[in-house]
Amino acid sequence: MTLMKWEPFTTPSVVKLFDQLFNRSFGLWPFSDFDNDGYYTFPVDVAETDKELIFRAELPGLKPDDIEILSTDDQLIIRGERKEEKEEKGTNYLFVESRRGAFYRAFSLNVPVKSEEVKASYKNGVLEVRLPKAEGAKTRRIPIEG
Questions:
Q1: Would you state the CATH architecture of domain 33-83+101-137?
Q2: Which of 80, 85, 74 is nearest to 57 (CA)?
Q3: 3-22 residue pLDDT tens
Q4: Which secondary structure element, helix H or strand E, spans residue 13, and what is its range?
Q5: φ, ψ at 119 (rounded to 5°)
Q6: What is the C-alpha separation between 115 and 132, in angstroms, rounded?
Q7: CA angle, corner 129, sides to 29 and 141, nearest 5?
Q8: Three-state SS at 100
């Protein structure tokens, strides 16, 4: 059996927990998810295959018309706005964590894509954007001589 030294303050989950505790204690939360321009960010997973780049963004509670996707040969932009819901009479909110307002994310693409063939779908609160790679963008292994 191999023993490993445990270093709790270098473990990413512990560091993230301390950051959240610090931000909440000093009144920065929930604003830490906003950038300097007032847009809020949202989680995005990015995957790559031989043929395409795949972006999956969590944007629950929106309609496809609330989301705008812009694509160029080297950039993907996802933006939109979550509108404020009408307040019901007699309802007194005690705590609100859901985000409202404009959201925005821009991604520089590491390979050229066919922007005219980009496809997007939205299901169960997850936006999926598929960007086919341009023919010259395929990765190839370079042999090393010597």
A1: Sandwich (2.60)
A2: 80
A3: 666 565 555 566 666 666 66
A4: helix 12-25
A5: -125, 145
A6: 8
A7: 105
A8: coil
21 burial level (CB within 10 Å; 0-12, 13-18, 19+): exposed
Q: In what order do the strands lie in the sheet with 67-71?
A: 67-71, 75-82, 101-108
Give, for 46, the enclosing helix (H) or strand (E). Answer: strand 44-48
The residue behind tokens 């609160």 is: 125
Q: Which residues pair with 64 in a beta bridge?
A: none
- β-sheet bridge partners, residue 103: 40, 80
Kindly state the tokens that stand for 62. 């929106």
What pTM, to 2 d.p., does this model score? 0.65
Q: What pLDDT digit, counting tens, does each position of 62-86 carry?
A: 999 999 999 887 889 999 988 877 6
| Residue 9: both structure tokens together | 């303050």
Residues in the chain: 146
Largest CA distance in the chain: 78
pLDDT in tens, 84-99: 776 677 778 777 777 7
